Amino acid sequence: MKKITSVCPYCGAGCKLKLVVDGNKIVRAEAAPGATNENQLCLKGYYGWDFLNDTRLLTPRLTQPMIRYEKGGKLQPVSWEEAIRYTAKRLAQIKAEHGPRAIMTTGSSRGTGNETNYVMQKFARAVINTNNVDCCARVCHGPSVAGLQATLGNGAMSNAISDIENSKCLLVFGYNCADSHPIVARRVLKAKQNGAKIIVCDPRKIETARIADQHLQLKNGSNMALVNAFGYVLLEEELYDKEYVARYTEGLEAYREAVKAYAPEAVAHLTGLSAQQIRQAMRTYAAAPSATIMWGMGVTQFGQAVDVVKGLASLALLTGNLGREHVGVGPVRGQNNVQGACDMGVLPDFFPGYQKVTDPQAREKFARAWGIDPAAMDNQTGVRITEVPHLALQGKVKAYYIMGEDPLQTEADLGLVREGFAALDFVVVQDIFMTKTAEVADVLLPATAWGEHGGVFTCADRGFQRFEKAVEPQYDVKRDWEIISLIASEMGYPMHYDSNQQIWDEMRELCPLFYGVTYEKMGDMGHVQWPCPTLDHPGTPYLYHDNRFATPSGKGQLFAAPWRAPAERPDSDYPLVLCTVREVGHYSCRSMTGNCAALQTLADEPGFVQMHPQDAEMLGVRDSQLVWVSSRRGRVISRAEVNERINPGAVYMTYQWWIGACNELTQDNLDPISGTPETKYCAVKVEAI
Ligand code: SF4
User: Domain 4Fe-4S Mo/W bis-MGD-type, which positions (predicted)?
Assistant: First the structure.
């Protein structure tokens, strides 16, 4: 038996673990002393490796390349040579006939690692010559990246996950950490045990609300109104740090003007909260010697998400809770490597290391390094994944090369997404499982899974961590970056790498932010947080040291915007608000965790709809009864979970199941800046069956 060091492939907490391997089988996982988890794991960490042993519970593993030569035809097994030749030929044809921007690509935010994401964005930019490359950050923390870059200059957590427990006040806003990041939730509990005040802003009585000093059960869709009211109280009661604001921020007067209509008393009808609750929350937050704001999808999956992120960052600026230990802003990223996917430039507006694609000098630098003519580089921001269905229906996007994502399960308004896919000429899916999206692909390219390769992940607190290969793949599969390189070479751009480290070092040379993060340093230290600009730099546990922000002026930007109502409000036909949520036992589209026996046993009920007893009684629905849940876009069957922790007037479902797939119901009202869909709010009705 041997023990292999790895990093959990599920959430952004980045827990280190040891995979215990007997022969070529994994027999168990053990917690390891990682910087974020310190010898603890949640259930997914302990039991989320089982799919590597080919348990085949739900979704078949992709075991060989396949091609569907004609639309409507059957997928046929083919050799790797044929799969690469055919894919390259079709992509080259579409590029020649419709231009580079007719081809869309994705990186992957999970088990594949940073090296592959670097290679995928290089393929899009150097081979296809498009910035059409994106990742699932678009549908989760895209607004955090955009909002924090605008206000503070970096789109990531300011402090370390391990620092959360040292803060003396945690403002937990739209973030159910117990379900989405259980190990982070333990840090929150530890902060409480260390004497921190906990303020939870969430419509539901989530787990963290049980230990909160204050739980603000705001109305669904009122985030901006509440954040503005918080800002109003800080100014009106003079709770803000005047000296800090004067020295390190800009925009106070415009901010004051923007929040003046948001006195807590004036917005009680929007927030559903008393003025006293809002005022008390800010008195607690402002009085704490150190305070941290944490948020999740309850902030970002709205049509007005970037504004709310900017507003939350402004609260930290107003109170001087940045630029030191135990404070800061914490958008805790969802998938295990979504921070890394963004770092590596699988974004339509950034090269690796957050260098803008619209910057001619950056384009010149990358073009020279990649051996192509700078004039061939796309000089416009590319397409975002949430725009693909619309652009496909308009005939502007013709081909979609999807790596390790399942948009036909995870994107809003699946009816629209299916229509968009039907309009595409060519769909390539590179994955480990026969996902919903893989089922409609023209080409299937089977890749190695986490556990069958090594690499580097970035966890939610900007920490780079290496993970190792544990077992040999059992099928005719290849590494993601090897597959991409073969297609690139077949398309006339010679691309070859011998190792992860070779890719990593090429990336480092091009990214000042990450230059000092060598494989050796990660090996020695285990967890290196960017920025790390030089070889002797130890990494950066907290951003904005000395309150120097990464904005053009070096100052933090205060910001507030008027509250906008969600796009679709409840009415007499669809009287309830639907909000999508997570389930602790499974992750994302469930393709990996659904193939793990222990996790599947733990959470095997497909789809629930949580509702308040008052709504259930009015609708004649009993607990555990099957119900129809309908919106203007679709109808799904689900099982009622009647629960007093749910706020009246709203229902909650997970998107992780094929039965009760709530994205059949959600709508794609997009945030105008980040393009993130409003999956936390649409109008539905529930009917007993
Ligand atoms: Fe840690 Fe997240 Fe994995 Fe759980 S799912 S072990 S919290 S990284």
Answer: 1-56
- pLDDT (tens digit per residue) in 596-616: 888 877 766 666 899 999 999
Q: CB-based contacts of 597: which residues, under 8 Å, 6+ apart?
A: 47, 50, 55, 57
Q: Report how far ligand 1's centroid is from the alpha carbon of 384 (Å).
A: 28
CA-to-CA distance for 403 and 447, rounded, in angstroms? Answer: 9
**Residue 531 banded pLDDT, cuts 50, 70, 90:** very high
Prediction ipTM score: 1.00
Report the nearest-CA residue for atom 2 of ligand 1: 11
Tell me the fold of 576-688: Barwin-like endoglucanases (2.40.40)
Which 3 state secondary structure label does DSSP give 544? coil
List the Cα angle 551/557/563 in 5-degree steps: 135
Residues 269-294: what's their mean pLDDT? 98
pLDDT average, residue stretch 205-233: 97
How far is the C-alpha of 684 from the C-alpha of 495, rounded, in Å?
A: 50
Residue 336 CA: nearest ligand 1 atom is 8
Domain range 78-137+336-495, CATH architecture: 3-Layer(aba) Sandwich (3.40)
Domain extents in the chain: 78-137+336-495, 142-332, 576-688
pLDDT (0 to 100) of residue 296: 95
Q: Name the residue at shortest CA distance from atom 4 of ligand 1.
A: 42
The residue count for the chain: 689
For residue 422, pLDDT beyond 90: yes
Give, in order, the Cα–Cα distances in Å from 651 to each of 173, 630, 657: 19, 12, 16
Mean local confidence (pLDDT), 664-678: 95
Q: Can you tell me the distance from the alpha carbon of 247 to that of 447, in angstroms, rounded to the nearest whole number?
A: 52
Mutation pick for ligand 1 pocket among 6, 7, 10 (CB with most ligand atoms within 8 Å): 10
Is there a contact between 219 and 203 (Cβ–Cβ < 8 Å)? yes
Compute the distance from residue 556 Cα to the ligand 1 centre, in Å.
Answer: 32
**What is the C-alpha to C-alpha distance for residues 191 and 319, in angstroms, rounded to an integer?**
20
Cβ pair 159, 326 in contact under 8 A: yes
> b/e map of 535-565 (b: 16 or more CB within 10 Å)?
eeeebbbbbbeebebbbeeebbbbbbbebee
17 alpha carbon – ligand 1 mean position (Å): 10
Q: What pLDDT does 51 receive?
A: 87
User: Residue 599: what pLDDT?
Assistant: 82
**Centre of ligand 1 from the C-alpha of residue 227, in Å:** 30
Q: What is residue 606's predicted lDDT score, i.e. its pLDDT?
A: 62
Give the pair of three-digit tokens for residue 189: 């509990």
Please give the pLDDT value at position 583.
77
CA 459–ligand 1 middle distance (angstroms): 11
CATH of the domain spanning 142-332: 3.40.228.10
Segments of 305-459 assigned E as strands: 328-331, 350-351, 355-356, 399-403, 426-431, 443-446, 455-458
* 14 alpha carbon – ligand 1 mean position (Å): 7
* Residue-level pLDDT at 602: 75
With a Cβ cut-off of 6 Å, ligand 1 is lined by 8, 10-11, 13-15, 37, 41-42, 44-45, 181-183
For residue 587, pLDDT over 90 is answered with no
Res 585: pLDDT:
74
